[in-house]
Amino acid sequence: MTAPLTPSQPPHNEPSNDPWQAPAQTSGATASHGYQEDGPGMKTEVRQAAVLAVVVAVSGLLLGLLWTWLTPRVPLISDGKAVYLKDTEGEQAIAIDGTFTLLALAFGLVCGVLVFLLRRRGGLPLVVGLALGSLAGSLLAWKLGHWIGPETDVVAHAKAVGKGVVFDAPLDLKAKGVLLAWPVAALAVHLGLNALFGPRDPEPYPAPYGGSAPYGGHAPYEGPRSDGHPGGTGS
Q: How far are the Cα atoms of 9, 10, 22, 173, 191 from residue 17, in angstroms, in the given order?
């Protein structure tokens, strides 16, 4: 009586030659993906974001100077009792907000492009730094233009120049929502460039055999059974 044929089993601690066996997985995320993450640490990203926020905020000084220089003045006149607009149909008051908005959008466009070119990998801290720096820059530009522009005390200025003398109104924003033009433009441009041209995460390597039963769910050949019948494929 002959013993049933059974597949030989490899000794312990020796690799098996079974073609159906999934390849051994190497411990550690680096070996499983086949690459090493090379981005800066979180502390480095936060530090870079803080530096970016300061640089962008300081550039608000340039925006404030340009706004003061390019914005049309609003002429006022006093009759000795009250102050009036000299040109009641003029659009200078609207132009103040419009000029600031256009300049802020241009600054946002430039900042978004420069940040993308200098730091392509991006990251949440960088985006937050860009947003906070742009908002701070807008506030700084507004305050600077208001400070270095025409006299802010309209009543005192009207008394100083005298009755019937035309003088300029203070440089101020009527719609404070325009302060968001810079950060919104910067984030939109930066995120858009990252979506179109930013680096892509490498796709994980697919497993050579999917699931526990390869080839459409059919189990591998197990050799002859102990009762003498040939082994099936377990379909």
A: 10, 8, 11, 78, 50
Q: How far is CA 234 from the centre of its chain?
A: 53
Q: How far is CA 54 from CA 15, 47, 89, 127, in A?
A: 58, 11, 41, 13
Read off the tokens for 94.
């609207």
* pLDDT tens, residue by residue, 32-87: 444 344 455 788 889 999 999 999 999 999 999 999 999 988 888 887 777 767 77
Q: How far apart are CA 192 and CA 198, in angstroms?
A: 9
Dihedral over Cα of 54, 59, 65, 69: its sign? negative
Sequence-distant (6+) residues with CB within 8 A of 133 are: 52, 53, 54, 55, 56, 57, 111
For the sheet with 83-85, list strands across it: 83-85, 75-78, 167-168
Q: Which residues of 53-70 are buried (b: 16+ CB within 10 A; e: fewer)?
A: beebbebbeebbebbbee
Secondary structure, 3-state, 87-145: CCCCCHHHHHHHHHHHHHHHHHHHHHHHHHHHCCCCCHHHHHHHHHHHHHHHHHHHHHH
Prediction pTM value: 0.65
Domain ranges of the chain: 42-74+98-152+169-197
